[in-house]
Amino acid sequence: MRIAIQEENFVRKEDYEAVVKKLEKEEEEHSKTKILLAKEAEKLQFALGEIEVLSKQLEREKQIFEKALSNVKSKALKESTKKDKLISKCNEIESHIMKQEDLLNDKENEIKELQQFITKQKQTLKTQVSDLKIQKQQESYIAQVLEKKQKKGLK
Q1: DSSP string, 103-151
Q2: What is the per-residue pLDDT across 59-112, written as a single tens digit (0 to 9) for each?
């Protein structure tokens, strides 16, 4: 009975060698898998490092861009304000020019009226001078006639 129990507890040599061979093969496969895992882990770490570097670079570039954008917006606002001031000043100047033109037109009209008045006054004065000459001639003629009559009457 002891032999039967021993036979039960023993494994055939072929089965044992097959199991050992299978175990060795699994250990070899496990070792290869471990090596592949280590390589992939290294690649992953390298990729993560690159991602971190690129993320930092992207963040720096984003900050530079935002600063440049802010500067451009600020400059655009200043230029817009400057443009609005210039437009306002142009409008003021145009308004002033229109007032000056109106004033100039009024002065020109006043000058024309004064020239017409002067022309009428000249004409009136010429007429008066002419009338005075005629009157003087008439008075002179009358004085001559009276003088002749007096001379005739004295004779």
Answers
A1: HHHHHHHHHHHHHHHHHHHHHHHHHHHHHHHHHHHHHHHHHHHHHHHHH
A2: 999 999 999 999 999 999 999 999 999 999 999 999 999 999 999 999 999 999
